[in-house]
Predict the 3D structure of the following.
Amino acid sequence: MDNIIIEGGCPLKGEVRISGAKNAALPILISSLLADGYCTYSNVPNLKDVESTKELLINHGAKIEAEGDTVKIDSGGLNNHEAPYDLVRKMRASILVLGPLVARLKKARVSLPGGCSIGARPINLHLKGLAALGAKVELVHGYVEASAEVLKGAEIFFDAVTVTGTENIMMAAVLAEGTTIIRNAAREPEVVALAEVLNKMGAKIEGIGTSVLTINGVSSLKPVFVSIIPDRIEAGTFMVSAGLTGGDVKLLDCEPSHLESVIHKLRLTGSIVTVDGNSVSVKGGESISSIDIKTIPYPGFPTDMQAQFMVLMSIAKGFSVISETIFENRFIHVSELRRMGADIKVSGNTAMITGVPALSGAPVMATDLRASASLILAGLVAKGVTRVNRVYHLDRGYDSIEKKFSMLGAKIKRVKV
Ligand code: EPU
């Protein structure tokens, strides 16, 4: 397994191009199951989760060609309704095949994703939604078995805002008979991106970007050519790295309108953030001010940026409170940051952080993608050497992270162990 070794203390400077968004690419690649013929996707990030998605689609009978950041998928040969445990356990987002498989093959058998290190992550709302559309849904030997001769439009109210739940039901409803209304739908940019792709394929979805989606079912969809939107979490991670190291970094090819809450909070910490078209420049301030953060669904502050901001707060002047309201166990990074000298106390879903003058490098490890990213950030600003173990999680969601940081002047390298 690879490790990443960082010698901290270099202010990051220069330009970095933001890759396509993981959480948009996964559902959009999976939406190819809804049409026959080649769908073409550009700006697809080079990630382990994208490789797992391709493997999953091939398992269902799709043909895939890939060159550079372009991926072509033809689901004309869709013939297998089962997503086995070995594929689903690698990547929870595999559950997104459930809606498309029932819509296209009238049945699906998908391994139930277990909990993961950040929380129990149930999929009850996906299943309730599918049942409301008329599917028979059962849990059998660790698998979700769902079937429906015909899916019928229905009114669905989500008790919680769920990103992949909204995406799954949207993909089932586009091919259902009649009208589906999803209330309390997720409004994340990745959900919007998927809805727009589905409409380009011929679906009829209204209310995109709002919490009420109205979907008029159609009998078939056609292949599309689309570009994956920029990754707002990768962008946010690089923005924090500039503020943290007192650097001056310009992000290219990002979508600033998706980053409003992150930009707002970063400015409050003292960083100077300038937006110009599709680029964002971040210059570290004289010092880092402490701020409070509460994670909430979009357009609120994203849970996927909580760990990175905690690193910033660890060396801020004063006391900060971070409340995590989306996932019940998303403070995995805290114990590792403490080992690097951070002063953080946790009570339930609240972390209380007293800024310290500096962090010190240490061997660290995390079992979650964003927690791992926060350890890289901590390593970039810490005194001495940090070794981040279990890089597997980072590779699931960050395209060439060490190369990009290295181009910004960081002393960072990947080593095989
Ligand atoms: N929830 C339920 N029942 C459900 C579904 C969700 O109770 O059926 C709860 C969850 O337990 C959680 C909350 O609702 O407390 C929100 O979960 P959501 O379903 O929105 O999360 P997700 O769809 O599984 C996606 C992203 C995550 C991101 C969250 C929140 C993808 C592939 N994953 O997960 O991304 O943190 O939305 O924005 O889109 C990451 O990229 O590191 C990551 C974890």
